[in-house]
Amino acid sequence: MEKLAIEGGVALNGEVAISGAKNAALPILCAGLLTAEPLTIRNVPHLRDVTTMLSLLGQMGMSISIDEKLGIELRAADIHTPEAPYEMVKTMRASVLVLGPLVARFGEARVSLPGGCAIGLRPVDQHLKGLQAMGATITMDHGYMIARASRLKGARICMDLVTVTGTENLMMAAVLADGVTTIENAAREPEIPDLAACLTAMGAQIKGAGTDVITIAGVEKLHGASHNVMPDRIETGTFLAAAAATGGSVRVTGARPGTLDAVLDKLRETGVKVETGDDWIAVAPNGRLRAVNVRTAPYPAFPTDMQAQFVALNSVADGTGVVHETIFENRFMHVQELCRLGADIEVEGNTAVVKGVAHLDGATVMATDLRASASLVIAGLIARGTTIVDRIYHLDRGYEAIEEKLSKLGARIRRVS
Ligand code: UD1
Q1: Which residues, 6 or more positions from 348, have their beta carbon under 8 angstroms from its beta carbon?
Q2: What pLDDT, on a 0 to 100 scale, did the predictor assign at position 120?
Q3: How far apart are CA 92 and CA 114, in angstroms?
Q4: How far is the CA of 121 from the centre of ligand 1 (A)?
Q5: Which residue from 96, 165, 295, 309 has its CB within 8 A of the most atoms of ligand 1, so it is best to mutate?
Q6: Which residues contact 215 (CB under 8 A, 6 or more apart)?
């Protein structure tokens, strides 16, 4: 199993280019199921989750090619197995994003129930409730959800809670439905307007993506298009947090600062200098870091996917930071590992109280999920001596070439078997 070996204590310095967003690329790849014509997607990050999604789509009969500019061309002209098997869904919960497009275009989808995952229960009841409102019948069969509808019908759907992939699934279902669908209490994460832009380029009629009410007038058919995936705001935030935590000066390029307001505000609160331009963000040190309180919530509030990185940052800051996780019930697994490096953190329920310490000391730690892994890498960059981060396959799910990018910024980091 591969690990990362990090010699800590070096401030990151320099410039790093941000990749395409994983959480935008995954639903957009599924949008390829909505038409028989080619969909070309550019700026797709090279990640394990993307490979998993492509192999899932390939198993269904999607033809997939990569053009000379590394754009991915999908063509769903001959989908013979509208199914997401357990083996896929258990490794990547976002596999559930095929549900909406499959039932909308082919009238049938068979998708394994995701089951528990490392960071919490994560049910899919809202996805199913929305499809049922659009006239789909849902049955359960040996751990699989089977959705059927001769043609989905437009409906008014009010989500009980804000769900990102739930909103995306229902948008993709509604674009081919008969009539108008409104999704109320929709997620507003920036990946939603990115998906809407791709669907609109394919001929869909969508209004309000990025607000909490999305209105979709269904059409008979969608056509081919090409789309550039937005930059990854979580990768961006992770590099900025790493730069701040190590006391470095880093400029991230190819980013979208407007998607990171809550994160940039928190970074400023730690005391670092933050500057932004059209497509770049720079952080620079400005005295000792101050611990900050963080409360995760749906966009535009502070993202749960940046919580673990800020716990790492707080662990060496001045003072005490209280971190409330309100989205997932089991998302503090990085805390035990950070404590092995000498961090002083107590968790009670969904709150972590992080008391800043003068320094961390390297040790072997184990990554438990994607963003927890990122926080361990940040901690390793700060810690004195060597930190070994084990089980980095989690990291490869969501960070493109992370050790190369960090090395270019001066980090002493290498991948070892
Ligand atoms: C997406 C992101 C993930 C991010 C999360 C929250 C992708 C591929 N993944 O995950 O990186 O951490 O948003 O920003 O985009 N819930 C229900 N019923 C449902 C659906 C969700 O109770 O039918 C609950 C979940 O258990 C969770 C909360 O709603 O507590 C939010 O989950 P959701 O927004 O659906 O997360 P994902 O879309 O899976």
Answers
A1: none
A2: 59
A3: 8
A4: 10
A5: 165
A6: 180, 181, 182, 183, 206, 207, 208
